[in-house]
Amino acid sequence: MSGEEVAESVGGPATDPARRRTTSPALALGDAWVIVELAPDAVLVVDERGRIELANRAAEVMFGCGRDSLIGLNVDALVPDARRELHRRHREVFATVPQARPMGVGVDLWARRADGSEVAVDISLSPVTFGHGPRIVAIVREVTEHRHEEQETRRRLILADEERIGALLQERITTRLSAAGLALEAAMNRASPEVAHRLRDVIDELDAVLLEIRTAVFGGQ
Question: d(Cα 171, Cα 177) in Å, to the nearest integer?
Answer without folding.
Answer: 10
